[in-house]
C-alpha cells in the first residue's frame, strides 16, 4: 500500500471550486470525509483527510468529472535551495517509501495555469537532471515502463514542490492529464478535437475497437459545420448529419455523410442507430432529458454528448443533469463524464447500454 497524505488532482484553471465540491461529496459518500485546499485559477486541488490512502482508493479516476489527473501526494517540500533541489527529494523518497520502491517513469510537471507556465523550462531541465540520479539509486527503472506507477514531481514555484504517485490504470496516461492532439487539415472545425479527445479519455482502446466498426450508422445532432461528423466518418461510420446550417463540402463528397436540414434537437431516426453524438448549444437540462429520451426510445445504442454548464453552481448542475439523463433513459446505462482539455464551460458524457 502506497502511503499518501493527500489526494492531488489537476483541473481546468477556474474550475477548482467545482473539483473541490466533487471530491468533498464523493469522499463523504464513501465514508472518508476530508477537506479541499486550493486557490482559484491554480489548476489543481489537494484533498486532505484522515486516511488519504483510502481516499484515493474510494474515488477511481474514471469516476471523476472535473479532474484531469489523479495522484496520491506523499510529500510537500518548501524552501528548496535552487543549488540543490535533488537531495531533499531523495530524502523524502527514502523517508516515505524506504529503499525498495521502483517507479516506471518520472514526470516533472507544473500546473496548467498562467502563473505556473513559466516553470516549464525549469521542469524540463530538472527532469533531465533528476532522472539519472533516480536510476542510479534504484528508484527508477532503467527504461520507462508505463505498466508501473509513476513518480510525479510537481513544481508550484522554484522552491516549492509536491511529490506524488500516479498509479497505472487509475490516472491519466498523459503529462498534466492532457492528451496532445493536433488539428487535422481536413477537419471542418476545431470542435473535432473535442470528440477525438472524448474517444481517448472516456473509452479504452478495447472499447473503441468493439464499439466502432466499419459500416455502423450514427447521427450527429446540430452537426454544422461537421467536425463531429468528420470524426465519426473516420471511425468507419455512415453518418446522418442533422442541422439547418451548411456542412463542409468534403464531408458530403465522401459518400459516408447524409445531410438532413432539420432541427437536431427534435429529429429522431426511424430505425435504431449504433451511435448518436451531440454538441448543441442548449440549456444543459434540456439536452440531458433529450439524450435520455434517445436511450429510452431505443434510437441509439451508444452516445457522446456535451452539457454546457452555467456560470454558477456548476457541480450542482452537473449532478442534476446526469440524474435527469439517467432517469429519463429509464434503463441501466454505463455513464462516464469528464471536463476535457478541449472543453470550456462544459462537460462531455459517454453513455452506453453495454461495454466490453
Automatic annotation (TrEMBL):
Domain of life where this protein originates: Bacteria
Catalytic residue list: 308 (proton acceptor)
Gene name of the record: rlmM
Domain RlmM ferredoxin-like: 6-71
Keyword NADP tagged: no
Catalytic activity as recorded in UniProt: cytidine(2498) in 23S rRNA + S-adenosyl-L-methionine = 2'-O-methylcytidine(2498) in 23S rRNA + S-adenosyl-L-homocysteine + H(+)
Residue intervals of the Ribosomal RNA large subunit methyltransferase M THUMP-like domain: 84-164
Pfam family, one: RlmM_FDX
SUPFAM superfamilies assigned to the protein according to its UniProt record, in alphabetical order: S-adenosyl-L-methionine-dependent methyltransferases (SSF53335)
Keywords per UniProt: Cytoplasm, Methyltransferase, rRNA processing, S-adenosyl-L-methionine, Transferase
Family, per entry: Belongs to the class I-like SAM-binding methyltransferase superfamily. RNA methyltransferase RlmE family. RlmM subfamily.
Residues that hold S-adenosyl-L-methionine according to the record: 191, 224-227, 243, 263, 279
Coiled coil: none
Domain Ribosomal RNA methyltransferase FtsJ positions: 189-281
Protein name: Ribosomal RNA large subunit methyltransferase M
Summary of the function given for this chain in its UniProt record: Catalyzes the 2'-O-methylation at nucleotide C2498 in 23S rRNA.
EC number: 2.1.1.186
Localization of this protein: Cytoplasm
Subunit structure as annotated in this protein's UniProt entry: Monomer.
InterPro entries registered for this protein in UniProt: RlmM_FDX (IPR040739), RlmM_THUMP-like (IPR048646), RNA_MeTrfase_FtsJ_dom (IPR002877), rRNA_MeTrfase_M (IPR011224), SAM-dependent_MTases_sf (IPR029063)
Amino acid at each position: 500500500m502506497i502511503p499518501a497524505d493527500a489526494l492531488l488532482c489537476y483541473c481546468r484553471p477556474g474550475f477548482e471550486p467545482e473539483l473541490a465540491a466533487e471530491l468533498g461529496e464523493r469522499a463523504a459518500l464513501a465514508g472518508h470525509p476530508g477537506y479541499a485546499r486550493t486557490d482559484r485559477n491554480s489548476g489543481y486541488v489537494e484533498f486532505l483527510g484522515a486516511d488519504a490512502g483510502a481516499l484515493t482508493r474510494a474515488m477511481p479516476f474514471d469516476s471523476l468529472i472535473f479532474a484531469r489527473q489523479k495522484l496520491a501526494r506523499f510529500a510537500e517540500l518548501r524552501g528548496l535551495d535552487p543549488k540543490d533541489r535533488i537531495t531533499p527529494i531523495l530524502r523524502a523518497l527514502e523517508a516515505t517509501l524506504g529503499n525498495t520502491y521502483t517507479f516506471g517513469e518520472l514526470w516533472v510537471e507544473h500546473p496548467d495555469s498562467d502563473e505556473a507556465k513559466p516553470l516549464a523550462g525549469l521542469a524540463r531541465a530538472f527532469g533531465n537532471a533528476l532522472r539519472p540520479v533516480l536510476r542510479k539509486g534504484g528508484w527508477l527503472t532503467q527504461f520507462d515502463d508505463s505498466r508501473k506507477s509513476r513518480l510525479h514531481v510537481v513544481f508550484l514555484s522554484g522552491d516549492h514542490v509536491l511529490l506524488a504517485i500516479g498509479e497505472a490504470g487509475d490516472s491519466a496516461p498523459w503529462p498534466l492529464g492532457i492528451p496532445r492532439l493536433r488539428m487535422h487539415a481536413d477537419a471542418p472545425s476545431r470542435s473535432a478535437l473535442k470528440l477525438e479527445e472524448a474517444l481517448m479519455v472516456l473509452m479504452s482502446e478495447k472499447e473503441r475497437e468493439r464499439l466502432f466498426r466499419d459500416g455502423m450508422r450514427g447521427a450527429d445532432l446540430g452537426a454544422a459545420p461537421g467536425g463531429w461528423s468528420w470524426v465519426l466518418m473516420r471511425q468507419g461510420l455512415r453518418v446522418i448529419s442533422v442541422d439547418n446550417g451548411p456542412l463542409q463540402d468534403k464531408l458530403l463528397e465522401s459518400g459516408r455523410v447524409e445531410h438532413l436540414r432539420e432541427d437536431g434537437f427534435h429529429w429522431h431516426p426511424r430505425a435504431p442507430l449504433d451511435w448518436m453524438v451531440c454538441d448543441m448549444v442548449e440549456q444543459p437540462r434540456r439536452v440531458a432529458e433529450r439524450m435520455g429520451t434517445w436511450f429510452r426510445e431505443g434510437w441509439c445504442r451508444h452516445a457522446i454528448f456535451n452539457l454546457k454548464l452555467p456560470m454558477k453552481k456548476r457541480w450542482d448542475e452537473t449532478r442534476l443533469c446526469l440524474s435527469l439523463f439517467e432517469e429519463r433513459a429509464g434503463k441501466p446505462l454505463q455513464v462516464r463524464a469528464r471536463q476535457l482539455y478541449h472543453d470550456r464551460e462544459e462537460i462531455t458524457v459517454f453513455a452506453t447500454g453495454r461495454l466490453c
